[in-house]
Structures are given as structure tokens and as C-alpha cells.
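[step 3/7] fold_predict: job queued, chain A
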Amino acid sequence: MKLLNPFSDSRPRNLPGRIALAGAAGALALTVPLGSPSQIVPAAQAQATSADMDRAVSALRAISTMRADFTQTDRAGNIVRGTMTLKRPGKIRFDYGKDADLLVVSNGKSLYMVDYEVRQVERWPIRNSPLGALLDPGRDVKQYGKLNPTSNSDVLSIEVRDPKRPEFGVMNLIFVRNPAAPGGMQLTHWVALDAQNYRTTVRLTNHRYGMSVPESTFKFRDPRRASRRPG
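[step 4/7] structure written:
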């Protein structure tokens, strides 16, 4: 099975354990297809849309730390699971388990995919990319995002893209109303569509908020200079 960056399904390589993301087909049915044409909406509806966007952004800003289990599924139906840890500002870690050869981690400035099998490190800047909407909601998400209609009033779907940087693709963040979550909205999954039109999904479950997370969580040993992966 092939592991892959949980924000993109592009640039497949022959790396053991690397996969793409796709799951949550039922949740995907709630969203309008990415890239659908914009429509003119009445002023009252536009105000409601703006308020919904504010609610989602407020929910992200209300998270100081979060840990959740994630499920990653590729286009062929391959599945892996792990734990995601998020800490403001801008830090995230996808841990696939102690025996995995891949680590995906952000230190607040860049996202790294660390492959211990072939001793490679790939880096993506998060600034001015759709990923920044998840890692840094202090940015003006409205500049990059729009609200997609859904069939459920308790579900919000926010599509985020930077038209000046199409190579970063599109992210669709899905929120479900939950009074127990910070800001009253819980991020349940996201869908990524990269520049090659590969669709990927990460679904989150068992959310926990407000725990202590040490900074060492978002550090890694560079395999290009080390012979062994840290335990």
C-alpha cells in the first residue's frame, strides 16, 4: 500500500506504504462538485453565506490544540489509519504508527513529508496556499474561500483555493454543527483536488480538544543525515 501526503494525491512514487486519500463518499455527496460555476445570489442569501463562513472560521480559530484519529483512503480504495495532532499556530502532525516509514508534519511554516525508507524529505510552503486555511485561520479565508451549498443545514462546505497559485489545488473543508466542539462547528473531513485533478480525502473521528502538546511533536529527524528513524 502506498502512503501519500494527506493534502494531495499528486506525484505518485514507488514508496512502500504511500497512499492517496479518497474516503467518505457519503459525505462527498453533500457537496457541490469542485470548480462548479458561480451563481448570482440575493443579498439576504449572500449575508447568510458570509455568516456561515464566519462561523466556520471562528470554529477553527477556537481550536488551540486538537487530536483526532484519521482515515486515509486512495482512489483504489486502499485504507490506512493514524492520529492527527494540531496545534496553533500552524502546526500539524500525521502519525501513521511506529512501524510506518512515512511522517507528515508542519512546523508552522512548511509542510514536510519525511520518507524514512528512501531517506527523502519533500517540503511545501503553507503560506498563501489553500492549506493555510486549515493551519492558519487568522488569515483572511474569505479571500481564498467560498461556501458551497449542501443538502443539510447542519453541514458547511468551504472550498478554498488561491487563483494566483493554481498549483496548490483546491481544498474543501467540511464542518458539522456540534455544540461540544470549539465554536460550535466540528471539522469532520476535507477533500483535496490537486492540479492534476486527483481527489483525496481525510476523515477525522474521535476529536479531542485542549490537551497539552509539546513542541517536540512537530520536529523530526532528517533521514538524509540520520541512519535511523527516531522512536
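[step 5/7] annotate
Residues 44 and 50 are 10 Å apart (CA to CA).
Residues 25-32+40-210 form a domain with the outer membrane lipoprotein receptor (LolB), chain A fold (CATH 2.50.20.10).
exit 0
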